[in-house]
Amino acid sequence: VESLLAAGPLKGIKALVTSGPTYEPIDPVRFIGNRSSGKQGHAIAAALARLGADVTLITGPVKLPDPANMRVIHVETAREMLGTALGCLPVDVAVCAAAVADWTVSNASKEKRKKDASGQPPPIELAANPDILATLSEKGSARPRLVVGFAAETEKLLEHARAKFVRKGCDWIVANDVSPHSGTFGGDFNTVHLLTQGGAEEWPRISKTDVAERLAWKIADTLKGHP
Ligand code: CTP
Ligand code: CA
């Protein structure tokens, strides 16, 4: 294993990957989450490791085993994910594939919420979560050389992805069709476009493993020769 890791085009490159959903607690037994499987993010971490990168995978709760040959850190909330990601810097490349909850429950209770005599459901108040991709993309000495985000969209894929690209300040966006007919969410295949400063590349419908492989090689090509 050691000698396999020592070879490869990403030898000496530090990579950070976020994957999976985040869970935002409502009370000690309940949370707001989403259906992200973590398959794509985990596959990217594995592909980067296969090319020799020193990978840290930060993952929300998923049903997948920890991939081999990397450091895996398990978190629950968006805030924990951000804190852990910042703690991993500096890295050469960051890939934010996690489906981070956009909101956290600001009135989460320490004790389990109980039904009361009124029969009314209790209010759930939401507050915005920090944006991990945008934070990592901020200019500064600790900014990774390459920051890659995902844009999961159910409609107007390229239009929404382009807007996200500009708003987040990242270098690449993998635009991901997650509409129900695409069958991508939770499935094994993905239909993606890669957006860079240079424009958009359409990738054929390929497995998430192949998307990961292709992305990892593209990362290697980009970082190679630009130490
Ligand atoms: N992302 C993140 N932190 C957040 C929200 C999103 O790091 N709090 C990252 C995701 O990992 C992904 C990218 O931002 O790489 C886009 O996520 P997405 O949910 O598609 O974008 P949002 O900006 O949250 O917009 P919306 O959900 O309204 O489409
Ligand atoms: Ca979102």
UniProtKB/TrEMBL annotation:
DNA/pantothenate metabolism flavoprotein C-terminal domain residues are 10-221
GO-annotated biological processes: coenzyme A biosynthetic process; pantothenate catabolic process
The protein's required cofactors: FMN; Mg(2+)
Which keywords does this Swiss-Prot/TrEMBL entry list? Decarboxylase, Flavoprotein, FMN, Ligase, Lyase, Magnesium, Metal-binding, Multifunctional enzyme
Give an example GO cellular component term for this record.
Answer: phosphopantothenoylcysteine decarboxylase complex
The Swiss-Prot or TrEMBL record describes its family as follows: In the C-terminal section; belongs to the PPC synthetase family. In the N-terminal section; belongs to the HFCD (homo-oligomeric flavin containing Cys decarboxylase) superfamily.
* Gene field: dfp
Which Enzyme Commission number(s) are listed? 4.1.1.36, 6.3.2.5
Explain the purpose of this protein: Catalyzes two steps in the biosynthesis of coenzyme A. In the first step cysteine is conjugated to 4'-phosphopantothenate to form 4-phosphopantothenoylcysteine, in the latter compound is decarboxylated to form 4'-phosphopantotheine. Catalyzes two sequential steps in the biosynthesis of coenzyme A. In the first step cysteine is conjugated to 4'-phosphopantothenate to form 4-phosphopantothenoylcysteine. In the second step the latter compound is decarboxylated to form 4'-phosphopantotheine.
Query: What's the catalysed reaction?
Result: N-[(R)-4-phosphopantothenoyl]-L-cysteine + H(+) = (R)-4'-phosphopantetheine + CO2; (R)-4'-phosphopantothenate + L-cysteine + CTP = N-[(R)-4-phosphopantothenoyl]-L-cysteine + CMP + diphosphate + H(+)
In which pathway is this protein known to take part? Answer: Cofactor biosynthesis; coenzyme A biosynthesis; CoA from (R)-pantothenate: step 3/5; Cofactor biosynthesis; coenzyme A biosynthesis; CoA from (R)-pantothenate: step 2/5
Q: What is this protein called?
A: Coenzyme A biosynthesis bifunctional protein CoaBC
Q: What does the entry list as the binding residues for CTP?
A: D102, K112, P130, D131, I132, L133, F150, K164, K168
Per the UniProt entry, what species is this protein from, by scientific name? Answer: Magnetospirillum gryphiswaldense (strain DSM 6361 / JCM 21280 / NBRC 15271 / MSR-1)
For the keyword Ligase, the answer is yes
The organism's superkingdom is given as Bacteria
Residue ranges for the region (Phosphopantothenate--cysteine ligase) are 15-227
The cofactor binding remark recorded in the entry reads: Binds 1 FMN per subunit.
Spell out the molecular function terms from Gene Ontology.
Answer: FMN binding; metal ion binding; phosphopantothenate--cysteine ligase activity; phosphopantothenoylcysteine decarboxylase activity
